[in-house]
Amino acid sequence: MDFVFSFINKAYLCNQILNTFCMETPNWSELSFGYMPTDYNIRCAYRNGKWGTLEITSDTTIPMHVAATSLHYGQEAFEGLKAFMGKDGKIRIFRPDENAKRLQSTCDGIMMPKMSTELFLEAVVKAVTLNKRFVPPYGSGASLYIRPLLIGTSPQVGVKPADEYLFLIFVMPVGPYFKEGFKPTPMVILRQYDRAAPLGTGTYKVGGNYAASLVAGEKAHAMGYSAVLYLDAKEKKYVDECGPANFFGIKNNTYITPESTSILPSITNKSLMQLARDMGMKVEQRRVPVEELSTFEEAGACGTAAVISPIIRIDDIVENISYQFSKNGEAGPVCTRLYEKLRAIQNGDEPDVHGWNVVID
Ligand code: PLP
Ligand code: COI
C-alpha cells in the first residue's frame, strides 16, 4: 500500500514539474479575459492573530475545512490589478498601493484581518516576478492580470468571523474583458434587478456582489448586451455602475461619474478623473439622474479588466427608452484620448507624472 501511495505522490510531483516547466506561453494576440494556469501562486496564512510569511506554490487547489466561513457566509474578498511590459523591458504594475488600501477597506467591511500595504505589495511583486514569462510583450495589447484573494478558512457555524484566513495571489495573461475591446458596446438597464444595497456591501470587493449580479448579467448577454447598467437600488432614479466597471459620461468638456454608496470605488475611474483634469476638463463626481443619460455626448465603462469600454447605447427596457452615444459605431474623441493616455502611462510610453506605476527592472 505504501508503495502505491508513494507512486501516486511521485506521479503527482512529476506532473507538477512538467506543468511548471513545459507549460507554453499563449498566443498573445488571441487572448481573451479568462483563467489560464501560470507557473506559481503566492500564499500567506493568518493564524493566532498574525500574518505569516509569503509562500510560493504551483498547486492550484486549496484544502478547505467544510465549515470555513468563506464557503458558508461569504467571508471572501478579492482584488484585480494589472502589470504591463514596457518597450524598455521593464514591467510596470499599475497602482497596487490603491488595491492594498481597497482590500483593507473591504476587510473592515466584512470583519477580516487587514494586511499591511507593504506585505500586499511584496506579494504582488513576487507573483509577477515569478511568472514573468507570462507578462505579454510590449505592443501585444494584452497584459498580466493579478488576482489577489482573501478568504476565511477556519470553521464557524454560528454567523461569526473566522479566526484563520488565507491570502493568495494568482496571475494570468489577459486580453480585453469585453470581446469588442475598445469598440463601443450596448448596455442595458434591467430595473427588476439590483446588485447591491445602499449602505450594503457594494463599496467592498466581495464575491457576494458578483453572485448577486449573475442572473441579470447572463440575461443581458443573452439579449446581446455586454453588461447591465445598474440604477440605485433604493429609488431607481440614479445611475450606479455597469456590472464589473464604473460608469462615466462626457458633456461640455466635463467628465461626470456617479457618487453612490453602493458602487465600488474604481481605481481606473480615480485615474481617469485625474487624467481628465490634466487635460483641462472639469470633473464632477455626483449623483447622475438616469434622464441625464440623454444629455451625454459620450459614455463609457471603466475598470481594470474593462480599461475603458465605450458605450454605444443604453436601453432602458422597462421604460422603453434608448440612450444613444455613438452615432458611427466608433469611440468618441474624449474616450479615445483618455484611453490612449491611460495606456501610454501603463506601458511606460509617457512619463508617469503622478507616480502610479511600481516598476520591476
Ligand atoms: N466596479 C466593479 C463592480 C468592479 O468589479 C470593478 C473592477 O474591479 C470596477 C468597478 C472597477 O474598479 P477598478 O478600476 O479598481 O478595477
Ligand atoms: C477587475 O476589473 O479587476 C474586476 O474585478 C472586474 C471583474 C473581472 C470582476
Question: What features would you describe in this structure?
Answer:
The chain has 361 residues and is of the alpha+beta class. 26% of the residues lie in helices and 27% in strands. The chain is built from 8 helices and 18 strands. The strands form 2 sheets. Strands 1, 2, 3, 4, 5, 6, 7, 8 and 18 form a 9-stranded antiparallel β-sheet that branches. It has a 6-stranded mixed beta barrel with strand order 9-10-11-12-15-16. Helix 3 (96-109) crosses helix 4. The longest helix is centred in the N-terminal third of the chain and has 21 residues, at 2-22. The termini are far apart. Mean pLDDT is 94; it is low at 1-9.
The major sheet is characterized as:
9 strands, antiparallel
SS-based class:
alpha+beta
Mean pLDDT: 94
Bound molecules: pyridoxal-5'-phosphate, 2-OXO-4-methylpentanoic acid
The residue fraction in helices comes out at 25-40%
CATH class assignment of the largest domain: Alpha Beta
Low-pLDDT sequence parts:
1-9
The name of the CATH superfamily of the largest domain reads: Aminotransferase class 4, branched-chain amino acid transferase, N-terminal domain
- Rg from Cα: 21 Å
The counted number of beta strands is 18
Q: Please give the count of helices.
A: 8
Give the H and E element order.
HEEEHEEEHHEEEHHEEEEHEEEEHE
SSE blueprint and pairings:
Blueprint: H1 2-22, E1 41-47, E2 50-51, E3 55-57, H2 69-73, E4 76-78, E5 81-85, E6 91-94, H3 96-109, H4 117-130, E7 143-152, E8 165-174, E9 185-189, H5 207-211, H6 214-222, E10 227-231, E11 239-242, E12 245-251, E13 254-258, H7 267-278, E14 282-286, E15 298-303, E16 307-316, E17 321-324, H8 333-347, E18 357-360
Parallel strand pairs: 9-10, 9-16, 13-14
Antiparallel strand pairs: 1-2, 1-3, 1-8, 4-7, 5-6, 5-7, 6-18, 7-8, 10-11, 11-12, 12-13, 12-15, 15-16, 16-17
Bound molecules: pyridoxal-5'-phosphate and 2-OXO-4-methylpentanoic acid (COI).
2-OXO-4-methylpentanoic acid binds at residues 80, 244, 303-305.
